[in-house]
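Fig. S4 source data, part A: sequence.
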Amino acid sequence: MVRHPLAWGGVAAVAMVALAAPALGMRIGYPAIDAPKGLAVVQTMDSIERAFPQGPSPAQVVVTGQDLGGPAVARAVAALQGRASASGPVRAPVTVASVAGGHGLVVSVPLAGNGSGSASDSALVTLRNQILPSTLGKVPGVSYAVTGDTASNHDFTQQLHSRVPLVFAMVAGVAFVLLAVAFGSIAIPLVSILLNLLSVGAAYGLITLIFQDGRLQGPLGYTSFGGIIAWEPLFMFVFLFGISMDYHVFLLSRIRELRLRGSSTKEAVVGGIASSAGVVTSAAFIMVAVFSVFATLSLIDLKILGIGMAAAVLIDATIVRGILLPAALALLGDRTWAAPRWLRRRAKITG
């Protein structure tokens, strides 16, 4: 790798990017039943559904305010019911129930779609942003909020989307500062973060191919619902970043020790990786074995976690740490340790 770093690193990087590419089409959501069809409990639930078919749970509009039994609220509810149609975002019947001794109303509004897909999400947004403001929203002194299964899943997903960039930035920022201070380098933390993101991207692409696109359903014993469970990508990122950084720091420490003893950067890279390869490989093997156990469990979220983490650790310990890291450091050469003087002095890096 250090003799031909551009060739080895280029091939490995292209392979990683190709594996990560399917993640660009990742869709997140929730399965109707998080268990394989072969389980007795799932078969019983299917039998009940066939005997007593029903649609998805309606959206629940909770209304509070003054004079909820008055004509203004009645007209608004009637207008809301009039927006229901067989092909529109809101479906019939729209029903109203008084709660808390008349201090509140719960308006049940069936939505288009199956309750968890894009059609239902679009109908929910239309209900919140267009239909309700033009009906109940015009009644003075009345407030409302929309809940229900569709709303809960949609809001949780939107919350994740809004917070993911913050989590990524915080984790990357903390890692950058700690690595820069520990190794007296600006290049090392940048390379480390980039390589970790490649590992995460490859894991995302793999779970998208397997679980979203429905590959290996037979051998793994699951039924694809056409997406990835919403909490898994963020959880995998944080968990994988922490695990991989553990033995990454161990490996970089060996390289730094040799560099402090007077070895060139390439010599330090070769010696550091050679001396730590056994420990890193053993640690990776243990983690892969542990995560692989999750793939044998019945719940699809645990299968996704097990396959994704096991593959990510394996890729990280072999392609990333065994090829990409030494290739990157060999290409950088002495520029690996480039940093402000105070930072180099803090880490006792010279030359």
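Fig. S4 source data, part B ends here. The domain at 59-147 is CATH 3.30.70 (Alpha-Beta Plaits).
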